[in-house]
């Protein structure tokens, strides 16, 4: 049950969901039509490629998976805790994500797997970071859990049970943000190609700067266990 979430979590979750939506749609419309923000489909495709003896496709898919896991591992090294707390290195993590997305653009334009790998690493870092500071309550790079929670809320409401309104609104916010990012990315990609990723890179970096400024303004803060 979410008893309280500070403003910077709401705004950060929305911004990062938009980022993930843009990155994912660019990956889908561009390089090998691969989603880069989540691994369920990627793992299924890897299994199919291995079964069909497609070594090149298998290698590319495995690189995507390892890059995502590597980004999550980097986030774990930076954040180190599951307690929501101003002062942790979210700004550093967001800055690294922005750099990874920016550097992925020229590699994508050369149709190199390294571009997709950097984008996947950025998404792994982002997803692990949000899961870390919220005790896995907020994951902004894929929506399966969000839609599952909405279904559970609906079932509870139909049974007349209490519903966690903050959690419900948070799920809705993330879903809408991801969808908005997908729409923006799909509209920009035909005109700017992979350079569309500069926009989520700027948005990620700006979110990191905003977090740093909010942290400085608030000063030392307490914790909010997830």
TrEMBL record:
What keywords is this UniProt entry annotated with? Membrane, Transmembrane, Transmembrane helix
- Where do transmembrane segments lie in this chain? 7-31, 59-78, 90-108, 114-138, 168-191, 197-214
Which InterPro entries does this chain map to?
DUF1275
The chain's coiled-coil residues are none
Pfam families to which the protein is assigned, alphabetical: DUF1275 (PF06912)
Q: Which PANTHER family does the record associate with it?
A: SLR0142 PROTEIN, UPF0700 TRANSMEMBRANE PROTEIN YOAK
Q: What is this protein called?
A: Uncharacterized membrane protein YoaK (UPF0700 family)
Source species of the chain: Lysobacter niastensis
């Amino acid at each position: 049950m979410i008893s309280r979430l500070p403003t910077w979590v709401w705004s950060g979750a929305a911004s990062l969901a938009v980022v993930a939506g843009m990155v994912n749609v660019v990956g889908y419309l561009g390089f090998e039509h691969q989603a880069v923000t989540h691994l369920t489909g990627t793992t299924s495709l890897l299994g199919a490629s291995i079964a069909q003896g497609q070594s090149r496709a298998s290698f590319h898919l495995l690189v995507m998976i390892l890059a995502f896991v590597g980004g999550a591992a980097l986030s774990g090294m930076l954040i180190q805790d599951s307690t929501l707390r101003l002062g942790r290195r979210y700004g550093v993590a967001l800055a690294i994500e922005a750099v990874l997305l920016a550097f992925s653009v020229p590699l994508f334009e050369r149709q190199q797997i390294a571009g997709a790998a950097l984008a996947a690493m950025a998404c792994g870092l982002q997803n692990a970071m949000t899961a870390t500071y919220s005790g896995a309550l907020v994951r902004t790079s894929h929506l399966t859990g969000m839609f599952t929670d909405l279904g559970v809320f609906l079932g509870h409401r139909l049974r007349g049970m209490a519903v966690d309104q903050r959690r419900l609104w948070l799920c809705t916010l993330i879903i809408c943000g991801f969808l908005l990012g997908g729409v923006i990315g799909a509209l920009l990609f035909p005109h700017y190609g992979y350079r569309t990723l500069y926009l989520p890179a700027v948005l990620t970096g700006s979110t990191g700067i905003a977090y740093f400024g909010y942290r400085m303004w608030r000063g030392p803060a307490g914790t909010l266990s997830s």
